[in-house]
Amino acid sequence: MAGERTRERGELEGEVMRILWGASEPLSARDIQAVFTGHVPAYTTLMTALERLQKKGDVVRSGDSPRKVRFHAARSGDEHVGRSMMTALDGAGDRQAALLQFAGNLAEEDLDLLRSALTGKTSRKRR
Known about the structure:
6% strand
């Protein structure tokens, strides 16, 4: 039925980003479509999502003609998650309470990792 939602809000953009993060090279919209499992979005729907992601700064578009346009993620998945966490923290009414709530929900191994990072005992790994 026309106009019926097949995904929740943001789900298509999230799936597109997961595909781009997993790609070793820039992909065309058709390449991205081919990777979808389950419901494959229409080409125009996918292009709209890619344009929105580009405007948000999450996707970089390259290519000089419509048939040669390729897309890749502007940053890694880890960088994206880190930015999202900082954005959420910046939007918190009480930054300290938000941090304490977050830390209170972490597994012990995550807390150990954070402790090590804060004391400089681990080196950061880039992917």
